[in-house]
Amino acid sequence: MDVLNPGNSWAWKDIAVNDNGTDLSMEIPLVRGCALVRISSARMTPARRYFYESTQVSIETGVGEATIHFTLDGQEPTVSSPVWTVPIAITTNTTVKARLFSAKGEPIGGILREEFVKIIRPPAPELEPATGFLQQPITMVHRLPDAGELTDAKIRFTVDGSEPTEASPILSPTYLVENPLTIKAKTFWRGQMSETSTAKFNKTSPMPPTPTVYISDFKPTQEKLGGRWTNRFDKSAADQPLQISGKVFEKGIGTHGGSELVFDVKPEWKRFVAKVGIDDRTPKLPNATVSFSVKVEVQTGNEEAAKAAGGQANIIAMGGIRSLVETPRLMSKCIWGINVALPPGTNKLRLQTWNGDNSPNTSHADWVDAGFLEK
């Protein structure tokens, strides 16, 4: 029996079955309350369908007095096909088909079919994290997916932008990144090399000054929730203290990827400042990212004044709404500073958050030490 849980791997996993002689019982693991169970009359192993030199294939069944017949040429197995008795070695691309037959030669269940593919090129190493913004050293780790026979493979890397070769240094299982750089890595195995994996680490933005007026002391005029979570003031979306990269903040807004808040802006407020990032208490999801956006609405009749201000980077006219800044996609443990001038005539401020392409809708996003400067 196998179980499939929702998640990043989406792979079938074996589950133990207890047989007390009259009943079968099993413990089925649930993820977010979900699991899909598969019951088979026969099963083929290994579960990994890719190999590099050879692989041993076995077929098992729990059906008593049944005979397993199989083919290796893509034909449907019949009672006249060879009988499976011992594991066989597969050394080339092969489609294995098998079926159970009763003592009377009648088929039992459906046809079991698996393709085994010989891989010429080894897999590229997976680097995690594959991107980051350096506020403190970051430890990068690597692994080989579906490593199997690659116990003697070497992962070699460069940090100067060049492609790794067999003369490049070997990448250790953990690599401490202390300065901005780009890491390129390849798997080398028995004269073959993989495609290139890349990890890029950049500097973060400077931290802004403390605001004169905190935005969390005001009520938004419009509010859009991100997912099923509630926007909270001076608390995280989980109703806990605001915390990014291990630091706790007293003031700010705890929200969620996919949210929007709109605030009135007073004429004496000249700049908007904030520190943003994924809250430390967000559900632990690998490579989850959130980006943050600040937009303003400029009063009709102040277009000429806004143009006259000039020199304000990253201002894009969008009808009555102007985009001031949008952060990169931030991963956990990263704080990004925002410090932007408000164009003349600004009367509304829009704070938006967006989940990254690879992020389920579960990323808690914090605007901390957020507010306005009066000069």
Report on this structure.
It is a single chain. The chain is mainly beta and 375 residues long. The chain has three domains: 2-118, Sandwich (Immunoglobulin-like), CATH 2.60.40; 126-203, Immunoglobulin-like (Sandwich); 213-373, Jelly Rolls (Sandwich). The chain contains one helix and 34 strands. The strands form nine sheets. Strands 21, 23, 26, 28, 32 and 34 form a six-stranded antiparallel sheet that branches. A hairpin with a 2-residue loop joins strand 30 (316-318) and strand 31. The longest helix is centred in the last third of the chain and has 7 residues, at 303-309. The N and C termini lie far apart (67 Å). 29% of the residues are buried. Mean pLDDT is 84; it is low at 310-319.
Structural descriptors:
375 residues, mainly beta, Immunoglobulin-like, Jelly Rolls, 3 domains, six-stranded antiparallel β-sheet
Quickly give the structural class. Answer: mainly beta
**If you average the pLDDT, what whole number results?**
84
The CATH H-level homologous superfamily of the largest domain: NPCBM/NEW2 domain
- Which overall shape is indicated by the principal axes computed on the Cα atoms? elongated
Number of helices: 1
Task: Note the main sheet.
Answer: 6 strands, antiparallel
Work out the count of structural domains: 3
Q: Which CATH first-tier class of the largest domain would you pick?
A: Mainly Beta
The percent of residues in helical segments reads under 10%
Terminal CA distance: 67 Å
The fraction of residues assigned to DSSP E strands is: 35-45%
Oligomerization category of the chains in this entry = single chain
Which CATH architecture of the largest domain is right? Sandwich
Rg, nearest Å: 29 Å
For this structure, the CATH topology of the largest domain is Jelly Rolls
Total number of beta strands: 34
Poorly predicted spans = 310-319
